[in-house]
Design a protein that fits this description.
420 residues, two-stranded antiparallel sheet, MetI-like fold
């Protein structure tokens, strides 16, 4: 009997190993199947999300307009003290670099970039480009004299400092300008002059408008989401369809509708005047009021949905239990019910705030000059100024603000879970 038991154990060992290997193969197949199913989505996210963000961050610190064109000039200025006039080799390098340009389009790109550093550089570069060639067989000293004859501004260190400052392909200047800092002629970082420090105010304005919109959305969405969560499923689904109607309508159409409603002779002012609440029409367009009203209307569903999903999971028996134990209905609501919806409040507020700080169409159409948010200036630098570096730097500021907000939210959620 003992020998038979040993034989059974010896035979069972290989079968157990075969079973373990079969389980491992099945697990590998399951993982490969899961990866193969999610791979198209990962590739899509990589191409449409991560790659554009990487390109944006790269362009925010890239400065190719000067470095790619004035190669010889940048090399000659590498050891320059940036105080006196540069050596004659820099003048010769400038004439050689400008003369090698195939057409005036590249000269115009170079001129725009330098003009953003020093006013007047655009006319200086284009005038010099049209005056080329200066002559054959000129020495560096003769080239220097000829360039100063073409335009006396080449005898000023200011324009050479702008070239030397931008001679490197990689620069922090765009990011510094986005937070109201800049580098002086010696390369030291300092604050922008007061009259040029604008982006800090614009960023604060963006956060201010976004915060007001978020608070108003929360005040409107919380009672509505609570009301929907207390209904029977059929009626709640019907009303939720009405809440989601804005998702099916173009933002541009909704903004145009608000222009019609909020104008001086529009429906809103006509109703207020007709009921006697006001004596004359209110100014609701092309100011902060119109921007906030339209943004709240557009973003309200993004606050309602997270709140509704959380409120549906809160058992109504909690409130009844608190009331049966002696608490007043109002105290029971704020002390028992509301704390259980903090996750929905946080998710909705974060979503609305992040969407608000990137808004462009609504402030551009409904707001005035003092109501434009940071995204407006990103579009301005992209479409009008053709300064991609500055546009990407401002986009990087918005991206950083979004990531910080998300990090704060995650920390708050973790703290709440640990306390719970």
């Amino acid at each position: 009997m003992h020998s038979l038991a040993l034989d059974d154990q010896a035979a069972a060992a290989p079968r157990g190993q075969d079973l373990a290997r079969a389980l491992q193969r099945a697990e590998r197949r399951r993982k490969l199947t899961a990866v193969s199913l999610t791979l198209p989505l990962l590739v899509f996210l990589l191409l449409t999300f991560l790659v554009p963000i990487g390109a944006l961050l790269k362009r925010a610190v890239e400065n190719p307009e000067v470095a790619d064109v004035l190669v010889h000039t940048g090399g000659a200025l590498s050891g320059w003290n940036r105080q006196d006039l540069p050596p004659a080799a820099a003048f010769a390098g400038l004439a050689k670099d400008l003369g090698a340009l195939p057409d005036s389009a590249q000269a115009g790109t170079l001129a725009r970039r330098l003009n953003s550093e020093v006013p007047g550089a655009r006319s200086l570069v284009m005038k010099t480009y049209r005056a080329l060639p200066l002559g054959e067989g000129l020495s560096p000293e003769q080239t220097r004299d000829r360039l100063i004859e073409v335009d006396a501004r080449w005898g000023e260190a200011l324009y050479w400092q702008a070239i030397a400052k931008n001679a490197s392909r990689w620069t922090p200047d765009y990011l510094l300008a986005a937070v109201d800092l800049h580098r002086d002629a010696a390369g030291h970082i300092e604050a922008m002059p007061t009259e040029q420090a604008v982006f800090g105010k614009i960023l604060l304005r963006t956060f201010n408008i976004s915060a007001v919109v978020t608070v108003l959305c929360l005040l409107l969405a919380y009672p509505l989401a609570y009301w929907l969560s207390t209904m029977e499923a059929r009626r709640a689904n019907l009303l939720m369809i009405l809440v989601l109607v804005p998702f099916w309508t173009s933002i541009l159409v909704r903004v145009a509708a608000w222009i019609v409603l909020l104008q001086r002779e529009g429906l809103v002012n006509s109703a207020l005047v007709g009921t006697g609440l006001i004596d004359e029409p209110l100014a609701l367009l092309f100011n902060r009021t119109g921007v906030v009203i339209a943004m709240v209307h557009i973003l309200l569903p993004f606050m309602i949905l997270p709140l509704y999903s959380v409120m549906k999971s809160v058992p109504p028996t909690y409130l009844r239990a608190a009331i049966s134990l002696g608490s007043s209905p109002l105290a029971a609501f704020f002390r028992v019910y509301v704390p259980q919806t903090w996750s929905g409040v946080g998710a909705g507020a974060l979503l609305v705030f992040i969407l608000s700080i990137g808004y462009y169409v609504t402030p551009a159409l409904l707001g005035g000059a003092d109501d434009q948010m940071l995204s407006y200036y990103i579009a301005q630098y992209t479409n009008v100024e053709i300064n991609w570096g500055m546009a990407c730097a401002l986009g990087a500021v918005l991206l950083t603000a979004t990531l910080i907000l998300y990090g704060v939210y995650r920390r708050m959620v973790k703290s709440e879970l640990s306390l719970g």
